Amino acid sequence: MDKTILNQTGIENPLLLYAVTDRHWLNGRRLYDDVEEALKGGVTFVQLREKDDMAMAYDDFLAEAKEIGALCRKYQVPFVIDDNVEIALAAGADGVHVGQSDMEAGAVREAIGEDRILGVSAHTVEEALLAEKRGADYLGVGAVFPTGSKKDAESVDFETLRAICAAVKIPVVAIGGITRDNVRELAGSGICGISVISAIFAQEHIREASEALKEETRKIIEG
Question: Disulfide-capable partner of 105 in 77, 97, 134, 158 (CB 3.0 to 4.6 Å)?
Fold first, then answer.
């Protein structure tokens, strides 16, 4: 899948409902199966994230990335790896997402080339503008609400989120603590979508949770 999917018109917004994996919620299930349930529910973008405290052997991580990547291609959904350029390239992923404390955005762009997607986390207008300048295709901005998924997450208030959306020309996805109950509070911010973990993968019925969250998000994006 070419990264131009992020800029094409006439197709559904690929950043509308961005799902980030977390095996903490598997409870004996396969990650592949949970991701497929989310895709069946309408998830439009998938990021494979393996946290440091659940580190996998390289070969296992690569095999998982290839498997999830193939699944995303089946559903024609972009697939990126969190903070691991080597795995992303080896697995043939569509791109990489990096945080401010990870590999510098310009270096990532140089490593992955121009044809892959580069997402960058940002918390301020300055960080957002720098990421855009260094080749980011989209920004993940947050945490917009308190979150337990990332213990060191910085908070971003609504006005900062709106200021970032106004300052950059690339799409902005809100991240951090978003649920079906609070997503409407993001209306009017200028975001093009939301990125979630537990709002999908911690739910008993993943497909139904994805469907409901996508519909709520569509309402605030399309007005």
Answer: 134
- Least confident among 4-13, 25-34, 130-139, 202-211: 4-13
Domain presence at residue 37:
yes
Q: Is residue 197 part of a domain?
A: yes
151 has binding-site annotation: no
Domain count, the chain: 1
Coil, strand or helix: which one is 176? coil
Amino acid at 111: A
| Residue 50 labelled as part of a binding site | yes
Place of tokens 């509070």: 185
In sequence order, the 6+-apart residues with CB closer than 8 A to the CB of 171 are: 6, 15, 137, 138, 139, 192, 193
Domain assignment present for 4: no
pLDDT tens-digit map of 142-155: 999 987 666 667 89
Residue span of the structural domain in which 43 resides: 13-222
Give the CA distances from residue 176 to residues 68, 104, 148, 194, 217, in Å, rounded to whole numbers and listed in that order: 23, 22, 9, 9, 14
CATH number at residue 104: 3.20.20.70
Per the annotation, does 149 bind a ligand?
Answer: yes
Is residue 197 marked as binding?
A: yes
Per the domain annotation, does 17 fall within a domain?
Answer: yes
Q: Is residue 8 over pLDDT 60?
A: no
**What amino acid positions are annotated as catalytic residues?**
49, 121, 150
